Amino acid sequence: MFLGAAMRGLAHILAVGLVLFGLLPSASAAEDADLAARFAKEQALVETLSRSTTPRDQRQLGDLYRDGLIFSADNPIRKADRDAAISAYRRAIELGDNSPSVTVSLGRLLMRQSGGEGFAEIEQALQALALQGNGDATYLLAVDAMENRHVPLELAIPRLEAAAMLGSAAAVNDLLAAGVSVGDTLRQAVLARLTERAEAGQAPAALALFQIYADGLLTERDPQKAMQWLERAAQNDPVTAVEQLGDQYLTGLNVEADPARAADLFRQAARAGGRNAALALGRAAIAETGMPVSSAEARWWLQQASEADVRTASVELSNLDLKIALAFDGAPEERQKLIMAALEPIADDPDALANLANQNWRSAQSEVIGKVLLPLLEKQALDGRTVAALAYNAWLEANGRPLPDAVARALIESLRKTPFVSVGYSNFTVAGLALDGRMSEAVLSRNQAIRLLFKAADDNVGQAMLRLGQLYRQGDQLARSDSFAKRWFIRAGERAVERANWELAEMQAGSRDQAERDEADRFYLTQIDAGDPRGGLAIVAARLRQGTLDGIVLERAKSVIQTPTDTIALASLLFSTGTPGYVQEAAALLSGLRQDELEPGDLVSLGRLKSAMAVTPEQTAMAFSMLEKAAESGSQVARTALAASYLSSVMQRDKVPAAIAMLQQVLVDNPKDPESRLLLARAYMLGIGVERDARKAASLVADVRSENGMRMPKATLLEADWLAFSSAGRNPAKAVALLDAQAARGSSAAERALGEYYLNGFGPAIRPDAAATRMYEAANAGDKEAMAALGHMLLNGYGLNQSREAGLGWLERAANAGNTAAMYELSRVFALRPEAESDTRQAIAWLQKAAERNHPNAAYQLGLAYLTGEWVDKDVTQASVWFERSARSGNLLAARTLKAVREGITAKEAAIVSDTAD
Fold it and tell me: In Å, what is the CA distance from 416 to each residue of 403, 423, 457?
């Protein structure tokens, strides 16, 4: 869409205004003259070399075109010309220059051109160089074999090893990436060759040594030595090496971070023609990297890169102009014009528009930007631009809006005419959109989508195979079949779809067949041996469900747990079992973490886990302090987690208004945040901190469900509750179907909710046997509420054969996992047994734990115990303390009893009250 000269005029006015106010980087007259002189000299040189018939001049011309020429007399950014470089190198060879540099340079260019077309013309010369010991030529032949001739990696490894031995750092990187062990002889040979070349002033060799020492590829990691080689490379390479040096000072990876020094280095490289340096300076004002680069200077460098056809520069320039426009605090219509001006340069570029849209402007400004961006994307989509249509859909989906049928049809037609990647992948893309509900039945039915998915799988699209495996495993749109799911997962894994291997192992780990479980174990142990912490976490989770976790497997899992995130995840798995030994193991794992070293996300996870593990008020307060500290960082996740904790704590009722305000602020910053909307929905449903409004709650939940489908189990559970209990939208059958689908995706909470439905008759008929099955599945997966329910059912012989021992076992597991209801029930079980079997010591211990976790009835009963002197020494003061805590938790009887105690109630009267309460 053409926005007109007026919009271009606004952008021009913005730039001119920045110059007038001295905000744009004003190059000195000397710098301008120097650039103009360099440009003129370079142009004259190119003209001279183009007319020359000497091989040396043609080689030099090829190098110039390969590395890029200065774009213009007032723009230092260099623009490469691959085709011109290829022509110059070919001319040099025709004139007799068969030097290694020309041959290898031409080989690299042909390798990247149209899938290696034309590489055969240089192959024989490269083979001759390889026989002479040229590592770069040997590496190119190895890459050609893998990428263009599709030689399996195992057959190409000897060529890569030969190239590495001859000094090719790229070959070393490829070997290490493929998991090939590099022996000492090869390491020493590579280091010796590269060091010799680097000391002779060859910048590429010095850069390779920098990478080796920085990453610890062939030797021990040595940041100091790495930086020494990078500094040396920068002396001979004013662009690439200086850009990398700038990156180091910006990120602080191998040297102390110094954003100011980084900015100076990027300016140096950009003035020498560095495209990446210009982009880094441009992005500085967008990403707020800490470099002292003004918005005006950033814009100037992005403008230079954009003029030099650096594709991402135009997108970044629009990004920056958008940021400036959004900061404009004048009239809304004027800000809208500035946004239009920011997007006008990329209005007819579908790739640039898609790039901008895919940055997910999911913030309070998304609607403002969308008013301009979405019409541009829609026009490109309707014009048959696939990339624009996909980006348009992604934006709409992120903001909870449907894809118009016209755009969906245009997308299907564009993919039919010009397949995206391949015909098979195009079919997979369309099928996925339809199955995810992004295309209406009027455009493409679910049956048609399934057929397209099978066609994509037949065309060897691995992701289509994965999706089919998931559909069969979940029983979603295809009849549930573990054997079919397994078959498709295996096929997808053979197509290098990593996720398929994990899904297959997860399915096998839950199988009743021991051979299948052994297969899962072998996969997880292989991942552990490769150093992948996911394997450790997965095998612990699987063994805990099976009840077969032993010390050896746990230690192997712990051996790959390195980060705080993984440590907390493992501790959470162990704690969720409720088994005393594992609870202690979880506490030991967490003891090694230092709060002051944790990122906000990890601090949130730790705070939540510590809150569940807390057994004293002091420990609970410490857990809350972690969440509050994380929230102070400004993290939306942390603020949402803190609000959730306030809303769920009976002792934090005074913080409920603050929690509601926190959630509302998160939604101001990010209107589509699903977690905050679900918490608010629950508050409206129950009337916590807000006036009860079931319809508003249902609307929030429906929005989250429409945007996330089954990806948000909490949304499914809330919607199921609405369907099961509300008078306005009651549909029990649909509630059960929703929960069943969510449970099939591995949600233990959905399994437990189904168990509760069957137990209480909320929707389906009361079926104790079905309830027991669901509760067992959820309890075995670590759901502490399900553990408590299962224990209660076993104690009472409801849906299961009565077993006091098994029932107490599950109640204790639930209690150890932090379920206060289970703690309280255990206290009553031990207290209310016949006198000969009662265990007052355990009864009072569990009652104390439940009361300390603010269970209202437990605190009340503990108060009665102190008041009457039953099980504990009589202490009216302590009784008052516990009555008060129970009253603060909402127990009205405790409030009345507290008042009576203060008025002089007798122990006998207290006993009568207690009997009435029971």
Answer: 19, 8, 17
- Chain centroid to Cα 72, Å, comes to 42
CA distances in angstroms from 358 to 319, 374, 390, 398, listed in the order given: 12, 12, 9, 10
- End-to-end CA distance of the chain: give it in Å, rounded: 74
Contacts 24+ apart (CB under 8 A), 369-375: 369/322, 369/326, 369/339, 370/395, 370/399, 371/336, 371/339, 372/336, 372/339, 372/340, 372/343, 373/343, 375/1
Helices 5-20, 311-326: axis angle to 10 degrees equals 80
Quick: pLDDT tens for 664-673: 988 887 787 8
Residue 350 has pLDDT above 70, yes or no: yes
Instruction: Tell me how far apart the alpha carbons of residues 277 and 246 are, in angstroms, rounded to a whole number.
Output: 8
pLDDT at 453: 96
Q: What angle do CA 529, 534, 539 make, to 5 degrees?
A: 75
Tokens for 693? 């409004």
Q: What is the 3-state secondary structure (H, E, C) of 330-386?
A: CCHHHHHHHHHHHHHHHCCCHHHHHHHHCCCCCCCCHHHHHHHHHHHHHHHHHCCCH
Structure tokens at 154: 């195992």
Q: Which two tokens stand for residue 560?
A: 């790959």
Half-sphere exposure of 57 (CA within 13 A, CB side): 10
Three state DSSP letters for 3-33? CCHHHHHHHHHHHHHHHHCCCCCCCCHHHHH
**3-state SS, residue 79:** strand
726/200 Cα distance (integer angstroms): 80
What count of residues does the chain have? 918
C-beta separation of 177 from 166 below 8 A: no
Distance between CA atoms of 279 and 233, rounded to whole angstroms?
21
pLDDT digits (tens, 9 = 90+) for 761-796: 766 678 888 888 899 988 888 888 999 999 999 988
Rounded Cα distance between 306 and 316, Å, is 9
CB 471 within 8 A of CB 457: no
Per the DSSP assignment, residues forming a β-bridge with 70 are: 78
Q: Are the CB atoms for 768 and 740 separated by under 8 Å?
A: no
The answer to whether 80 and 67 have CB atoms below 8 angstroms apart is yes
